[in-house]
Amino acid sequence: MPTSLVTGGAGFLGSHLCDELLRRGHRVICVDNLETGSLANIEHIRSDDFVHLNLDIIDPYFVDEPIDFVYHLASPASPIDYLRLPLHTLKVGSYGTHHTLGLAKRHRARFLTASTSEVYGDPQVHPQPESYWGHVNPIGPRGVYDEAKRYAEALTMAYHRQQGVDTAIIRIFNTYGPRMRPHDGRAIPTFLRQALQNRPITVFGDGSQTRSFCYVDDLIRGMIALAESGHHNPVNVGNPNEFTLLELAEAVIEVTGSGSEIVYEALPTDDPQVRQPDITLARSLLRWQPEIDLREGLRRTIELSGSERLIGDSR
Ligand code: NAD
């Protein structure tokens, strides 16, 4: 039985990854200090092959058993979190990634770091292939997240080149699904919460900025395929179907049958205008592509979460 360690395993993506790894017969060690995650995301797991260690990976940490795969997902991920936790975000991307790479090295484990489409910043190339180096404002408020992730990528390649660690880098594009927090500030949970309460849906700017939304099950399948591939350079994983924020709001209204109206609010600083993955590499290398379209994904999110959890007033 392979053992996988998942940092950030009590978060949105991490908890789905733990579920899928357990389903595939792995032993899973979830390392999470619950900074932005929650025990509610993992409390359904009853398996003896699952353990949660409440550790802050900004400090060195050690695990006393063999490990085959290290999935490094711990990091504040939504703008509301990294704008509240700017130094923590930089530290988890730097010290946290150092400690986790060091752990992978000691255990001779395959290491995968969760990077992001935000490494492309406000892209001047569209759609974004892995070969594009990005257009990031390092000193804007979002810079703490974008640069932490760019640093984590540089560090991962250095551990690979200098220390021989078997590493992988997944560049994740906007992903959604059950267990997103209703108030985490990202578009889909916000729109769903507003639509289910028949409140106005708040679109930033004129709503013409685009995003590409990937359902969580598709993303996790791509992540595991990459971890098991032996590939070292970054790979985009996301859904290439692109929607304007206005189209997303309309899809949410349609799927929920809501009577909400759409209202417009000021655009946040450095909000990217476009976002669309070029997934040619994932298609050829991993034989991976998303299978769940936006409306189906929204329906699954509502069905599996239940309206109460989507509306909830906790974080
Ligand atoms: P999340 O906030 O739900 O999960 C992050 C988890 O990391 C949380 O459970 C949190 O408690 C934990 N964590 C944070 N700091 C920690 C620390 N110092 N020590 C231990 N645990 C710590 O976010 P998510 O959406 O699940 O994102 C997971 C990863 O995927 C992140 O690295 C994020 O940057 C990346 N990502 C996510 C998306 C997306 O659309 N969800 C897009 C691109 C990249």
Describe the structure.
With 315 residues, the protein is an alpha/beta fold. It folds into two domains: 3-175 and 215-237, 3-Layer(aba) Sandwich (Rossmann fold); 180-211 and 241-275 and 292-311, Alpha-Beta Complex (UDP-galactose 4-epimerase, domain 1), CATH 3.90.25.10. Helices cover 38% and strands 17% of the residues. It has helices at residues 12-23, 79-84, 86-107, 143-163, 187-196, 216-227, 245-256, 280-286, 294-305, 307-311, and strands at residues 3-7, 27-31, 50-53, 69-72, 110-116, 167-172, 175-176, 201-204, 210-212, 214-215, 235-237, 242-244, 262-265. The protein has a seven-stranded parallel β-sheet, with helices on both faces. A two-stranded parallel ribbon has the order 7-10. Helix 4 links the parallel strand 5 and strand 6. The longest helix has 22 residues, at 86-107. Residues 7-8, 10-14, 31-37, 56-58, 73-77, 92, 96, 114, 116, 172, 174-175 line the site of nicotinamide-adenine-dinucleotide (NAD). The site of nicotinamide-adenine-dinucleotide (NAD) has 29 residues, from helix 1, helix 3 and strand 5.
